[in-house]
Amino acid sequence: MASLRGLHVPARQFLFPSTSSRFPTLSARLFATESTISASPSRTVILHGISSSDALSELIDQHPVGSIDHIKYDPEKKRAFINYFGKAPALSFLGRIKSSTTELDAKLFHGEPIPPSTEVIAAVGLRGASRCIIINPAPRDATKESLAKVLTRYGQVEKVEIQPNSGGEKSFARVHFYSIHSALKAVRNIRKDEDMHGLGIHFTPDRSDAFLQERLHDARRPAAENVSGNLPNAVRLSDVKTAIGWKRLEWVVKNATSSDRPVLSSLKKAPQGSDIYLNFFYPRDAALFVQAFNSQVPRPLRGCGTATLVPRKHVEVSNYYLSRAASLGASRTIAISKIKDWTQITHARIFRDFAKFGHIIEIRVNEYGSLSLSELPHVMDAMTALDRIQANPDEFSRYVGTHIAFTSQKRLVPIIPKSPTDNAKAEDAHPPLPVDAASNLEAVA
Protein backbone atom coordinates (compact mmCIF):
# COMPACT_ATOMS: atom_id res chain seq x y z
CA MET A 1 0.00 0.00 0.00
CA ALA A 2 2.93 2.30 0.56
CA SER A 3 3.56 2.39 -3.17
CA LEU A 4 0.15 3.97 -3.72
CA ARG A 5 0.94 7.10 -1.75
CA GLY A 6 0.94 10.06 -4.08
CA LEU A 7 1.38 7.88 -7.16
CA HIS A 8 1.15 10.15 -10.15
CA VAL A 9 1.55 8.92 -13.73
CA PRO A 10 2.21 11.79 -16.17
CA ALA A 11 1.04 12.05 -19.75
CA ARG A 12 3.15 10.03 -22.19
CA GLN A 13 3.37 10.20 -25.96
CA PHE A 14 0.09 12.04 -26.36
CA LEU A 15 0.97 14.83 -28.72
CA PHE A 16 4.67 14.31 -29.22
CA PRO A 17 7.15 12.07 -27.37
CA SER A 18 8.25 14.61 -24.80
CA THR A 19 7.99 15.58 -21.18
CA SER A 20 4.85 17.53 -20.36
CA SER A 21 5.40 21.24 -20.07
CA ARG A 22 4.95 22.76 -16.64
CA PHE A 23 1.85 24.79 -15.99
CA PRO A 24 0.61 26.91 -13.08
CA THR A 25 -0.79 24.81 -10.26
CA LEU A 26 -4.51 25.10 -9.79
CA SER A 27 -5.23 25.70 -6.15
CA ALA A 28 -9.02 25.25 -6.21
CA ARG A 29 -10.44 22.32 -4.33
CA LEU A 30 -11.56 19.13 -6.00
CA PHE A 31 -15.12 19.27 -7.26
CA ALA A 32 -16.37 15.68 -7.56
CA THR A 33 -20.11 15.35 -7.19
CA GLU A 34 -22.83 13.41 -8.96
CA SER A 35 -22.68 16.09 -11.59
CA THR A 36 -20.84 19.35 -12.04
CA ILE A 37 -23.98 21.16 -13.17
CA SER A 38 -24.84 24.22 -11.15
CA ALA A 39 -27.28 23.11 -8.49
CA SER A 40 -29.83 25.79 -9.27
CA PRO A 41 -33.37 25.18 -7.98
CA SER A 42 -34.64 27.37 -10.81
CA ARG A 43 -34.41 24.35 -13.09
CA THR A 44 -37.51 22.88 -11.42
CA VAL A 45 -41.08 24.11 -11.78
CA ILE A 46 -43.75 23.09 -9.25
CA LEU A 47 -47.39 23.09 -10.34
CA HIS A 48 -50.37 23.00 -7.97
CA GLY A 49 -53.85 22.16 -9.19
CA ILE A 50 -53.05 19.40 -11.71
CA SER A 51 -56.20 17.27 -11.70
CA SER A 52 -54.73 14.16 -13.34
CA SER A 53 -51.70 12.71 -15.05
CA ASP A 54 -53.49 13.12 -18.40
CA ALA A 55 -53.91 16.82 -17.68
CA LEU A 56 -50.19 17.07 -16.92
CA SER A 57 -49.31 15.36 -20.23
CA GLU A 58 -51.58 17.71 -22.13
CA LEU A 59 -49.94 20.69 -20.46
CA ILE A 60 -46.47 19.48 -21.50
CA ASP A 61 -47.73 18.99 -25.05
CA GLN A 62 -48.98 22.57 -25.15
CA HIS A 63 -45.68 24.08 -23.97
CA PRO A 64 -42.66 22.31 -25.55
CA VAL A 65 -39.87 24.48 -24.15
CA GLY A 66 -36.97 22.09 -23.47
CA SER A 67 -35.72 18.67 -22.47
CA ILE A 68 -37.00 17.26 -19.16
CA ASP A 69 -34.82 15.15 -16.89
CA HIS A 70 -37.62 13.84 -14.69
CA ILE A 71 -41.17 14.50 -13.54
CA LYS A 72 -42.78 13.70 -10.21
CA TYR A 73 -46.57 13.77 -9.98
CA ASP A 74 -48.47 13.52 -6.70
CA PRO A 75 -52.16 12.70 -7.44
CA GLU A 76 -53.24 13.14 -3.82
CA LYS A 77 -51.94 16.69 -3.51
CA LYS A 78 -52.55 17.35 -7.22
CA ARG A 79 -49.12 18.78 -7.75
CA ALA A 80 -46.25 18.06 -10.12
CA PHE A 81 -42.51 18.76 -10.13
CA ILE A 82 -40.98 19.18 -13.59
CA ASN A 83 -37.18 19.17 -13.58
CA TYR A 84 -35.70 20.62 -16.77
CA PHE A 85 -32.10 20.34 -17.93
CA GLY A 86 -31.56 24.07 -17.72
CA LYS A 87 -32.73 27.31 -16.18
CA ALA A 88 -33.96 28.84 -19.46
CA PRO A 89 -36.61 26.22 -20.32
CA ALA A 90 -37.87 26.20 -16.72
CA LEU A 91 -38.38 29.96 -16.80
CA SER A 92 -39.96 29.75 -20.26
CA PHE A 93 -42.42 27.08 -19.12
CA LEU A 94 -43.27 29.06 -16.01
CA GLY A 95 -43.90 32.20 -18.04
CA ARG A 96 -46.17 30.37 -20.49
CA ILE A 97 -48.21 28.78 -17.74
CA LYS A 98 -48.77 32.10 -15.97
CA SER A 99 -49.79 33.84 -19.16
CA SER A 100 -52.11 31.10 -20.45
CA THR A 101 -54.12 29.99 -17.41
CA THR A 102 -55.27 31.22 -14.02
CA GLU A 103 -56.31 27.82 -12.66
CA LEU A 104 -52.80 26.58 -11.92
CA ASP A 105 -50.44 27.82 -9.25
CA ALA A 106 -46.98 27.67 -10.88
CA LYS A 107 -43.69 28.72 -9.34
CA LEU A 108 -40.03 27.82 -9.17
CA PHE A 109 -39.22 25.10 -6.67
CA HIS A 110 -36.70 26.24 -4.05
CA GLY A 111 -36.12 22.92 -2.33
CA GLU A 112 -32.99 20.78 -2.58
CA PRO A 113 -32.39 20.14 -6.31
CA ILE A 114 -31.59 16.67 -7.63
CA PRO A 115 -28.90 16.89 -10.34
CA PRO A 116 -28.82 14.45 -13.28
CA SER A 117 -27.01 11.23 -12.42
CA THR A 118 -23.67 10.38 -14.00
CA GLU A 119 -25.39 7.50 -15.78
CA VAL A 120 -27.94 9.83 -17.37
CA ILE A 121 -25.31 12.40 -18.41
CA ALA A 122 -23.25 9.73 -20.18
CA ALA A 123 -26.33 8.34 -21.96
CA VAL A 124 -27.36 11.82 -23.12
CA GLY A 125 -23.94 12.42 -24.68
CA LEU A 126 -23.48 8.97 -26.19
CA ARG A 127 -26.98 8.08 -27.41
CA GLY A 128 -29.12 11.20 -27.13
CA ALA A 129 -31.05 9.71 -24.22
CA SER A 130 -34.38 11.25 -23.35
CA ARG A 131 -37.59 10.28 -21.53
CA CYS A 132 -38.95 8.87 -24.79
CA ILE A 133 -38.22 5.56 -26.51
CA ILE A 134 -39.42 3.88 -29.70
CA ILE A 135 -40.36 0.18 -29.77
CA ASN A 136 -40.51 -1.02 -33.36
CA PRO A 137 -42.49 -3.05 -34.17
CA ALA A 138 -44.93 -2.76 -31.29
CA PRO A 139 -45.71 -6.04 -29.51
CA ARG A 140 -48.50 -7.94 -31.27
CA ASP A 141 -52.01 -7.19 -29.99
CA ALA A 142 -50.60 -4.56 -27.60
CA THR A 143 -52.76 -1.65 -26.54
CA LYS A 144 -51.71 1.60 -24.91
CA GLU A 145 -52.96 0.36 -21.57
CA SER A 146 -51.40 -3.11 -21.74
CA LEU A 147 -48.05 -1.81 -22.92
CA ALA A 148 -47.96 0.86 -20.20
CA LYS A 149 -48.69 -1.80 -17.59
CA VAL A 150 -45.82 -4.00 -18.81
CA LEU A 151 -43.34 -1.13 -18.96
CA THR A 152 -44.04 0.11 -15.44
CA ARG A 153 -41.50 -2.49 -14.26
CA TYR A 154 -38.85 -0.04 -15.53
CA GLY A 155 -40.40 3.10 -14.13
CA GLN A 156 -43.51 5.26 -14.14
CA VAL A 157 -44.94 5.74 -17.64
CA GLU A 158 -46.38 9.12 -18.62
CA LYS A 159 -48.13 7.98 -21.77
CA VAL A 160 -47.95 5.52 -24.68
CA GLU A 161 -48.67 6.18 -28.36
CA ILE A 162 -49.13 3.37 -30.91
CA GLN A 163 -48.89 4.50 -34.51
CA PRO A 164 -48.75 2.71 -37.88
CA ASN A 165 -45.46 2.50 -39.78
CA SER A 166 -45.16 4.11 -43.19
CA GLY A 167 -45.95 0.75 -44.83
CA GLY A 168 -49.08 0.36 -42.77
CA GLU A 169 -48.56 -3.35 -42.08
CA LYS A 170 -47.05 -3.01 -38.58
CA SER A 171 -47.21 -0.41 -35.84
CA PHE A 172 -44.58 1.11 -33.60
CA ALA A 173 -44.93 2.37 -30.06
CA ARG A 174 -43.66 5.67 -28.66
CA VAL A 175 -43.34 5.47 -24.90
CA HIS A 176 -42.89 8.51 -22.65
CA PHE A 177 -41.52 7.79 -19.18
CA TYR A 178 -41.52 10.21 -16.28
CA SER A 179 -37.71 10.18 -16.14
CA ILE A 180 -34.72 9.60 -18.40
CA HIS A 181 -33.40 7.13 -15.85
CA SER A 182 -36.49 4.92 -16.37
CA ALA A 183 -36.18 5.14 -20.16
CA LEU A 184 -32.50 4.21 -19.91
CA LYS A 185 -33.37 1.21 -17.74
CA ALA A 186 -35.96 0.12 -20.32
CA VAL A 187 -33.53 0.41 -23.23
CA ARG A 188 -30.96 -1.71 -21.40
CA ASN A 189 -33.31 -4.43 -20.24
CA ILE A 190 -36.25 -4.63 -22.59
CA ARG A 191 -34.50 -6.96 -25.03
CA LYS A 192 -34.05 -9.46 -22.19
CA ASP A 193 -37.80 -9.54 -21.62
CA GLU A 194 -39.36 -12.70 -23.06
CA ASP A 195 -42.53 -10.78 -23.98
CA MET A 196 -40.52 -8.32 -26.13
CA HIS A 197 -37.77 -10.51 -27.52
CA GLY A 198 -36.62 -9.42 -30.98
CA LEU A 199 -38.15 -5.95 -30.88
CA GLY A 200 -36.12 -2.91 -31.89
CA ILE A 201 -35.76 -0.19 -29.28
CA HIS A 202 -34.04 3.20 -29.30
CA PHE A 203 -34.30 6.70 -27.86
CA THR A 204 -36.24 9.41 -29.64
CA PRO A 205 -36.23 13.15 -28.89
CA ASP A 206 -38.41 14.31 -26.02
CA ARG A 207 -41.55 15.87 -27.48
CA SER A 208 -41.11 18.79 -25.08
CA ASP A 209 -37.63 19.54 -26.47
CA ALA A 210 -38.45 22.18 -29.06
CA PHE A 211 -34.80 23.28 -29.26
CA LEU A 212 -33.64 19.83 -30.35
CA GLN A 213 -36.45 19.63 -32.87
CA GLU A 214 -35.05 22.80 -34.44
CA ARG A 215 -31.56 21.26 -34.55
CA LEU A 216 -32.95 18.16 -36.25
CA HIS A 217 -34.67 20.40 -38.79
CA ASP A 218 -31.41 22.28 -39.37
CA ALA A 219 -29.54 19.02 -39.94
CA ARG A 220 -31.81 18.23 -42.89
CA ARG A 221 -31.24 21.59 -44.53
CA PRO A 222 -28.42 22.25 -47.02
CA ALA A 223 -25.29 23.65 -45.37
CA ALA A 224 -25.51 26.85 -47.42
CA GLU A 225 -28.93 27.63 -45.92
CA ASN A 226 -27.99 26.66 -42.40
CA VAL A 227 -26.09 29.53 -40.84
CA SER A 228 -26.92 29.39 -37.15
CA GLY A 229 -26.47 25.63 -36.76
CA ASN A 230 -23.36 25.32 -38.90
CA LEU A 231 -20.90 27.42 -36.91
CA PRO A 232 -17.44 25.84 -36.57
CA ASN A 233 -16.48 24.37 -33.22
CA ALA A 234 -13.08 22.96 -34.27
CA VAL A 235 -9.75 24.83 -34.33
CA ARG A 236 -6.58 23.89 -36.18
CA LEU A 237 -3.18 24.87 -34.79
CA SER A 238 -0.98 24.79 -37.86
CA ASP A 239 2.73 24.25 -38.33
CA VAL A 240 3.53 23.05 -34.81
CA LYS A 241 7.33 22.64 -34.85
CA THR A 242 8.09 22.02 -31.19
CA ALA A 243 6.85 19.51 -28.64
CA ILE A 244 3.86 20.77 -26.69
CA GLY A 245 2.77 19.19 -23.44
CA TRP A 246 -0.91 18.49 -22.90
CA LYS A 247 -1.11 20.44 -19.67
CA ARG A 248 0.53 23.49 -21.21
CA LEU A 249 -1.93 23.51 -24.10
CA GLU A 250 -4.90 23.05 -21.78
CA TRP A 251 -3.70 25.97 -19.67
CA VAL A 252 -3.47 28.20 -22.78
CA VAL A 253 -7.05 27.27 -23.72
CA LYS A 254 -8.25 28.02 -20.20
CA ASN A 255 -6.67 31.49 -20.20
CA ALA A 256 -8.03 32.31 -23.67
CA THR A 257 -11.63 31.31 -22.99
CA SER A 258 -11.88 32.25 -19.27
CA SER A 259 -14.77 29.83 -18.82
CA ASP A 260 -15.81 27.94 -15.69
CA ARG A 261 -17.47 25.18 -17.70
CA PRO A 262 -15.61 22.49 -19.69
CA VAL A 263 -14.70 23.86 -23.12
CA LEU A 264 -12.55 21.19 -24.82
CA SER A 265 -14.25 17.99 -25.94
CA SER A 266 -11.06 16.54 -27.45
CA LEU A 267 -7.55 17.23 -28.65
CA LYS A 268 -6.03 15.28 -31.53
CA LYS A 269 -2.80 15.34 -33.48
CA ALA A 270 -3.06 14.94 -37.24
CA PRO A 271 -1.84 11.53 -38.43
CA GLN A 272 0.45 13.27 -40.87
CA GLY A 273 2.01 16.68 -40.70
CA SER A 274 2.35 19.00 -37.74
CA ASP A 275 -1.22 20.19 -37.13
CA ILE A 276 -3.20 19.83 -33.92
CA TYR A 277 -6.99 19.89 -33.79
CA LEU A 278 -8.88 21.27 -30.80
CA ASN A 279 -12.56 20.41 -30.69
CA PHE A 280 -14.70 22.68 -28.52
CA PHE A 281 -18.16 21.98 -27.11
CA TYR A 282 -19.41 25.42 -28.14
CA PRO A 283 -18.63 27.44 -31.32
CA ARG A 284 -18.37 30.68 -29.30
CA ASP A 285 -15.50 29.24 -27.25
CA ALA A 286 -13.71 28.15 -30.42
CA ALA A 287 -14.02 31.64 -31.92
CA LEU A 288 -12.88 33.25 -28.67
CA PHE A 289 -9.81 31.02 -28.50
CA VAL A 290 -8.79 31.79 -32.09
CA GLN A 291 -9.11 35.54 -31.54
CA ALA A 292 -7.16 35.46 -28.26
CA PHE A 293 -4.46 33.10 -29.56
CA ASN A 294 -3.71 34.98 -32.78
CA SER A 295 -3.71 38.42 -31.12
CA GLN A 296 -0.89 37.59 -28.69
CA VAL A 297 2.68 38.49 -29.57
CA PRO A 298 4.69 36.41 -29.12
CA ARG A 299 2.50 33.37 -29.48
CA PRO A 300 1.49 31.70 -26.18
CA LEU A 301 2.94 28.45 -27.56
CA ARG A 302 6.45 28.53 -28.94
CA GLY A 303 7.06 27.04 -32.36
CA CYS A 304 3.38 27.21 -33.28
CA GLY A 305 1.75 28.95 -36.23
CA THR A 306 -1.73 30.39 -36.32
CA ALA A 307 -5.06 29.13 -35.03
CA THR A 308 -7.88 28.89 -37.55
CA LEU A 309 -11.50 27.80 -37.34
CA VAL A 310 -12.37 24.64 -39.30
CA PRO A 311 -15.76 25.06 -41.03
CA ARG A 312 -18.29 22.27 -40.87
CA LYS A 313 -19.63 20.81 -44.07
CA HIS A 314 -22.88 19.77 -42.41
CA VAL A 315 -24.68 19.95 -39.10
CA GLU A 316 -24.19 16.97 -36.80
CA VAL A 317 -26.87 16.47 -34.17
CA SER A 318 -24.37 14.39 -32.18
CA ASN A 319 -22.41 17.58 -31.50
CA TYR A 320 -25.49 19.02 -29.85
CA TYR A 321 -25.84 15.96 -27.61
CA LEU A 322 -22.17 16.26 -26.70
CA SER A 323 -22.60 19.94 -25.77
CA ARG A 324 -25.67 19.13 -23.72
CA ALA A 325 -23.77 16.45 -21.78
CA ALA A 326 -20.97 18.96 -21.11
CA SER A 327 -23.45 21.51 -19.76
CA LEU A 328 -24.73 18.81 -17.40
CA GLY A 329 -21.25 18.07 -16.08
CA ALA A 330 -19.52 15.64 -18.47
CA SER A 331 -15.75 16.05 -18.71
CA ARG A 332 -12.67 14.06 -19.68
CA THR A 333 -11.75 13.40 -16.05
CA ILE A 334 -13.32 10.68 -13.91
CA ALA A 335 -13.15 10.64 -10.11
CA ILE A 336 -13.43 7.41 -8.13
CA SER A 337 -14.02 8.17 -4.46
CA LYS A 338 -14.96 6.25 -1.32
CA ILE A 339 -12.39 3.57 -2.11
CA LYS A 340 -12.09 1.29 0.91
CA ASP A 341 -10.38 -1.83 -0.41
CA TRP A 342 -7.04 -0.92 -2.01
CA THR A 343 -6.26 -4.60 -2.59
CA GLN A 344 -9.04 -4.76 -5.19
CA ILE A 345 -8.74 -1.25 -6.66
CA THR A 346 -5.03 -0.79 -7.23
CA HIS A 347 -3.38 1.71 -9.52
CA ALA A 348 -2.55 -1.09 -11.96
CA ARG A 349 -6.17 -2.29 -11.91
CA ILE A 350 -7.55 1.19 -12.58
CA PHE A 351 -5.12 1.62 -15.44
CA ARG A 352 -6.12 -1.67 -17.08
CA ASP A 353 -9.84 -1.01 -16.64
CA PHE A 354 -9.88 2.49 -18.10
CA ALA A 355 -7.27 1.91 -20.81
CA LYS A 356 -9.96 -0.12 -22.61
CA PHE A 357 -11.78 3.09 -23.44
CA GLY A 358 -8.96 5.30 -24.69
CA HIS A 359 -5.39 6.44 -24.19
CA ILE A 360 -4.96 7.51 -20.58
CA ILE A 361 -3.38 10.93 -20.22
CA GLU A 362 -2.99 10.82 -16.48
CA ILE A 363 -3.92 8.84 -13.37
CA ARG A 364 -3.65 10.22 -9.86
CA VAL A 365 -4.19 8.12 -6.77
CA ASN A 366 -4.47 9.43 -3.23
CA GLU A 367 -4.64 6.68 -0.64
CA TYR A 368 -5.38 9.02 2.25
CA GLY A 369 -8.35 10.59 0.52
CA SER A 370 -9.57 7.29 -0.96
CA LEU A 371 -9.60 9.02 -4.33
CA SER A 372 -8.44 8.25 -7.86
CA LEU A 373 -8.55 10.59 -10.86
CA SER A 374 -8.32 9.31 -14.43
CA GLU A 375 -8.05 11.73 -17.36
CA LEU A 376 -8.70 10.71 -20.97
CA PRO A 377 -8.16 12.70 -24.19
CA HIS A 378 -11.81 12.74 -25.31
CA VAL A 379 -15.01 13.30 -23.36
CA MET A 380 -16.57 10.47 -25.35
CA ASP A 381 -13.99 8.08 -23.88
CA ALA A 382 -14.91 9.14 -20.35
CA MET A 383 -18.64 8.85 -21.03
CA THR A 384 -18.18 5.41 -22.59
CA ALA A 385 -16.21 4.25 -19.55
CA LEU A 386 -18.89 5.37 -17.10
CA ASP A 387 -21.68 4.00 -19.27
CA ARG A 388 -19.95 0.62 -19.55
CA ILE A 389 -19.33 0.39 -15.81
CA GLN A 390 -22.98 1.17 -15.07
CA ALA A 391 -24.24 -1.36 -17.63
CA ASN A 392 -21.88 -4.19 -16.59
CA PRO A 393 -21.81 -4.33 -12.77
CA ASP A 394 -20.53 -7.93 -12.78
CA GLU A 395 -17.52 -7.09 -14.96
CA PHE A 396 -16.66 -4.11 -12.76
CA SER A 397 -17.76 -5.54 -9.42
CA ARG A 398 -14.58 -4.24 -7.75
CA TYR A 399 -16.05 -0.73 -7.90
CA VAL A 400 -19.24 -1.61 -6.02
CA GLY A 401 -19.56 0.71 -3.05
CA THR A 402 -17.40 3.44 -4.58
CA HIS A 403 -18.65 6.70 -6.06
CA ILE A 404 -17.72 7.25 -9.71
CA ALA A 405 -18.51 10.56 -11.39
CA PHE A 406 -17.23 13.20 -13.78
CA THR A 407 -15.11 15.88 -12.19
CA SER A 408 -14.11 19.35 -13.34
CA GLN A 409 -10.79 19.47 -15.16
CA LYS A 410 -10.20 23.02 -13.99
CA ARG A 411 -10.58 22.33 -10.28
CA LEU A 412 -8.14 19.52 -9.67
CA VAL A 413 -6.10 20.08 -6.56
CA PRO A 414 -2.58 18.63 -6.82
CA ILE A 415 -2.22 15.35 -4.94
CA ILE A 416 0.88 14.47 -2.87
CA PRO A 417 3.94 14.88 -5.15
CA LYS A 418 5.27 11.63 -6.52
CA SER A 419 8.60 10.29 -5.36
CA PRO A 420 11.26 9.02 -7.80
CA THR A 421 10.70 5.50 -6.45
CA ASP A 422 6.96 5.59 -7.04
CA ASN A 423 7.44 7.06 -10.49
CA ALA A 424 9.88 4.31 -11.46
CA LYS A 425 7.47 1.65 -10.24
CA ALA A 426 4.64 3.23 -12.20
CA GLU A 427 6.68 3.34 -15.39
CA ASP A 428 7.66 -0.31 -14.95
CA ALA A 429 4.11 -1.38 -14.27
CA HIS A 430 2.61 0.58 -17.16
CA PRO A 431 4.80 1.00 -20.25
CA PRO A 432 3.78 3.88 -22.53
CA LEU A 433 0.77 3.16 -24.72
CA PRO A 434 1.30 3.61 -28.47
CA VAL A 435 -0.68 6.49 -29.89
CA ASP A 436 -2.64 5.54 -32.98
CA ALA A 437 -3.05 9.04 -34.34
CA ALA A 438 -4.92 7.88 -37.41
CA SER A 439 -7.66 6.22 -35.37
CA ASN A 440 -7.76 8.95 -32.72
CA LEU A 441 -8.07 11.91 -35.07
CA GLU A 442 -11.59 13.23 -34.88
CA ALA A 443 -13.24 14.04 -38.18
CA VAL A 444 -13.75 17.76 -38.20
CA ALA A 445 -14.43 18.36 -41.85
UniProtKB/TrEMBL annotation:
SMART domains: RRM (SM00360). It comes from the Eukaryota. InterPro entries: Nucleotide-bd_a/b_plait_sf, RBD_domain_sf, RRM_dom. The keyword Metal-binding does not apply. It holds the Pfam family RRM_1. Keywords: RNA-binding. Coiled coil: none annotated. Residues 131-207 form the RRM domain. This is RRM domain-containing protein.
